[in-house]
From TrEMBL:
InterPro entries: C2_dom (IPR000008), C2_domain_sf (IPR035892). It holds the Pfam family C2. Keywords: Calcium, Metal-binding. This is C2 domain-containing protein. One of its GO terms (biological process) is regulation of neurotransmitter secretion. One of its GO terms (molecular function) is calcium ion binding. It comes from Laticauda laticaudata (Blue-ringed sea krait). Belongs to the MCTP family. One of its GO terms (cellular component) is synaptic vesicle membrane. Residues 12-127, 157-274 form the C2 domain.
Length: 281
């Protein structure tokens, strides 16, 4: 079996060089829970959208949500935590409509001032989405829950650990692998009826994803999109295996492949978009 894929990699901009007034010393943990969106903008011809959310802080992308298909009132309930050194930066939230094979459509953005958070107290925040070019447009709202936790400041002689090293120790990821599983063509027949019930498993480090099962076909069309996180210490190899589902007994192995992600480690954050097709020899 042969795996064919094409991918794009994007390096995002770093922090600004503009000098800001000094902030209080210390370290904070910021917990963000992305709850839901309400009355989001229509971006597809069918009158709906496939929204996902990106969070940026200091010019760097810190989190990207999963994509919710065909929904203007999506429910995410996703949580992330980051370490921050000060509260000077605004949290920047951008919502996009996922478009397979095309540039994703902008659905609105919002800013949040971290200085407004009370420490050690979870706060529900509703943000109105706007388009800077059309500020009067109503693009819906995003509901977040945020919790700011101060970390005890270490003594000066023990503060040689860089923030990037702290990120590694707390297992914060440094990139996103956005995968679209499209279809299979001419897969091997594993059942007595001359067909198979194929599904695909993906593994990147400790993360796993299993596609839906396509019944009685050698030419499945999955059309599934999902995201995995890339951790520096775990390497950039995706293991892909294709299986035939057999009820009541062990599933049959159809084939496997690996995809090695090419990373440029001089960037602060990486995003890969990969499209998978499965073919036989």
């Amino acid at each position: 079996m042969q795996l064919i894929f094409c991918g794009k990699k994007f390096g995002l901009a770093g922090t600004s060089n503009v000098e800001l007034p000094p902030a209080e010393p210390g370290m904070y943990q910021l917990d963000i829970t992305l709850r839901r969106g309400t009355n989001l903008a229509v971006r597809d011809r069918r009158g709906t959208s496939d929204p996902y959310v990106k969070f940026k802080l200091g010019g760097k992308e810190i989190f990207r949500s999963k994509t919710v298909s065909k929904n203007l009132n999506p429910v995410w309930e996703e949580r992330t935590s980051i370490l921050i050194e000060h509260l000077r930066e605004q949290l920047y939230i951008k919502v996009f409509d996922y478009d397979f094979g095309l540039q994703d459509d902008f659905m609105g953005s919002a800013f949040f001032d971290l200085n407004s958070l009370e420490q050690n107290r979870p706060v529900d925040v509703t943000l109105s989405l706007k388009d800077p070019h059309y500020p009067d447009q109503d693009l819906g709202t995003i509901l977040l829950t945020m919790l700011l936790i101060p970390k005890e400041q270490q003594r000066e002689e023990t503060q040689s650990v860089r923030l990037s090293d702290l990120h590694k120790k707390t297992q914060l990821w440094r990139g996103i692998v956005s995968i679209t599983l499209i279809e299979g063509c001419g897969l091997k027949a594993m059942d007595s009826n001359g067909l198979s019930d194929p599904y695909v498993k993906f593994r990147l480090g400790h993360q796993k994803y299993k596609s839906k099962i396509m019944s009685k076909t050698l030419n499945p069309k999955w059309r599934e999109q999902f995201d995995l996180h890339l951790y520096e210490e775990r390497g950039g190899i995706i293991d892909i295996t294709v299986w035939d589902r057999d009820a009541g007994k062990k599933d049959d192995f159809i084939g496997s492949s690996i995809s090695r992600l090419c990373c440029s480690y001089d960037t602060d954050f990486l995003e890969h978009k990969i499209y998978f097709f499965f073919l036989t020899y």
